[in-house]
Amino acid sequence: MGEFELISRFFAAAPCAQGGEGIALGIGDDCALLALPAGEQLAVSTDTLVAGVHFADPCDPFLLGQRSLAVAVSDLAAMGANPLAFTLALTTPSVDIDWLQRYAQGLNAMAQSCGVGLVGGDTTRGPLSLTLTVFGSVPAGQALTRSGARPGDLLCVGGELGNAAGALPLVLGQRTADAAITEPLLAHYWSPQPQLALGLALRGKATAAMDISDGLLADCGHIAKASAVRLVVERHRLPLSTALLAFVGEDQARVAALSGGDDYVLAFTLPASQLVPLQAGNWPVHVIGRVEAGQGVTLLDANGQDVTPAVRGYQHFRRAP
Amino acid sequence: MGEFELISRFFAAAPCAQGGEGIALGIGDDCALLALPAGEQLAVSTDTLVAGVHFADPCDPFLLGQRSLAVAVSDLAAMGANPLAFTLALTTPSVDIDWLQRYAQGLNAMAQSCGVGLVGGDTTRGPLSLTLTVFGSVPAGQALTRSGARPGDLLCVGGELGNAAGALPLVLGQRTADAAITEPLLAHYWSPQPQLALGLALRGKATAAMDISDGLLADCGHIAKASAVRLVVERHRLPLSTALLAFVGEDQARVAALSGGDDYVLAFTLPASQLVPLQAGNWPVHVIGRVEAGQGVTLLDANGQDVTPAVRGYQHFRRAP
């Protein structure tokens, strides 16, 4: 048995690989088999994280395990899908049992939190990178896409913005701060919580949705393009955390909220009539703007002046470290 | 728009990304959506190919495109699944449009041949590697697994063995030979044909199946373990190609057939009563041994002597180049 077969067995023995609802056949055969409820479709998304590009190397493997799964599952939340399973393709330069154990522990913690089971993947030798493919199910015709926003809809987000981008100087060890600041910011960076429940609650209510990974303005641009509308963002309505404001001040906090990546908070549009029912259900819904006829994204200040910046988001490969 | 978004658009415009049966939503949203026929399950498999480990770098990107998809789809064949779709996670150190075009052309050619559509993925900067996740559908309960082989079954393969391993000195430029030898061997290495039709024909007939990627003996070991039986391979019955025999001679051809990797030919077990119907249907079925009570894999020579080697297969990371 080669050392890479050892890794496979290691992950096959992890708690998150022990099956679950919808998993007809897990790790160990040529394919895994997934069973979908009648009338449901399969939602699929793939994300790759490369060492030195998407995360610093070395970094805490437990936190990397959490984060690598969370960013992938967030795409299921954005479709309003029920999480089901995932595969892990791990490429690593060497077999470090301690690293693998801690990575698997982080992966397990997030898998348990999100309700997904590991059903397969591949382990190979090479420069460190992780490709996770996640699977969910959604009733046919009820998935939240980017293409249904209509003029008159409200533009909303599901939580505070900019925390992950604000955390970057902490992640990279470039700055320090009090625990009251560092703990919430680092938690947001390393273990973002995919808004799965919110995604389900938005089915039949939101007209468009996506998760914010490239920065609010850039991602709003994706909805605007797919829906052939203009999205208007009101800068003074952005929800900002106390920790972020204390760490970088209001101006930089807004920059992080508008253009920083890695929030993994849902952005969505919905008719005004749907707002009260969602708020009554205690769902996190922050209105930050509206949908108009037109195209692109416009940023307004508190006086209604157009303050749209020229560059709207980070490029993945410029992000970190 | 960043250069990596350009790559995404490049693949989104490829012919194999233009939808097809079962693809409810393709590239461009947070997730793709797949629709399965009623009563069918989803078969999923993930394979990573790393430059310098699983393929020589540089190599012909068209051939790499073909091969990277074929090795993944072969796992669908091994389950008796109908091919449906795939995702591509491409990590590349730089944006080389010519390389990408030729890679996409090879990918398209194999996608068309196999009947799968590209539904999503990720493009990232980093050391060259490719992770493909393939999707198929199979009626619930009819998938071919590794675990159903029973004593008394015949052990069969779906084609000639050892050609890809035999081709390796040609792939690496270590040897030359006449076109009559090099063409079939290199074709087998660079564009293996997943035995999808054979996999479908084996549904309800084969008791166990897998595709040979690590070498016949190693992969027979997987069936033996999963089924809790012994597999007996008769060395003189191995199907060997004229080109391989002419290139390396009979002894080395048998070594390549037994322990070389990358054949992507199906190995399967079936009751003797199923042999004649399959042969009558002109399916490629070569009987190479039998299933017995016991465990492990035993290799016999033409006189029935046990000639089982100690080491049974290549390790992925030792393979090439």
TrEMBL record, chains A, B:
Keyword list, A-Z: ATP-binding, Kinase, Magnesium, Metal-binding, Nucleotide-binding, Thiamine biosynthesis, Transferase
Residue numbers binding substrate: 54, 262, 314
Highest taxon, organism lineage: Bacteria
Pathway named in the protein's UniProt entry: Cofactor biosynthesis; thiamine diphosphate biosynthesis; thiamine diphosphate from thiamine phosphate: step 1/1
Keyword Kinase: yes
Pfam families found in the cross-reference section: AIRS (PF00586)
GO MF terms held by the record: ATP binding; magnesium ion binding; thiamine-phosphate kinase activity
Residues noted as binding Mg(2+) 4 in the record, renumbered to the chain: 30, 45, 75
InterPro entries reported for this sequence: PurM-like_C_sf (IPR036676), PurM-like_N (IPR016188), PurM-like_N_sf (IPR036921), ThiL-like (IPR006283)
Ligand binding (Mg(2+) 1): 46-47, 122
GO biological process, one term: thiamine biosynthetic process
E.C. numbers: 2.7.4.16
Residues reported in the UniProt entry to bind Mg(2+) 5: 214
Binding site for Mg(2+) 2: 47, 75
Positions that bind Mg(2+) 3: 30, 75, 211
Domain PurM-like N-terminal positions: 28-138
Amino-acid positions noted as binding ATP in the UniProt annotation, renumbered to this chain: 121-122, 146, 213
Catalytic activity reported: thiamine phosphate + ATP = thiamine diphosphate + ADP
Note: Reaction mechanism of ThiL seems to utilize a direct, inline transfer of the gamma-phosphate of ATP to TMP rather than a phosphorylated enzyme intermediate.
Function: Catalyzes the ATP-dependent phosphorylation of thiamine-monophosphate (TMP) to form thiamine-pyrophosphate (TPP), the active form of vitamin B1.
Family, as annotated: Belongs to the thiamine-monophosphate kinase family.
PANTHER family on file: THIAMINE-MONOPHOSPHATE KINASE
Record protein name field: Thiamine-monophosphate kinase
Naturally occurring in which organism (per UniProt): Pseudomonas synxantha
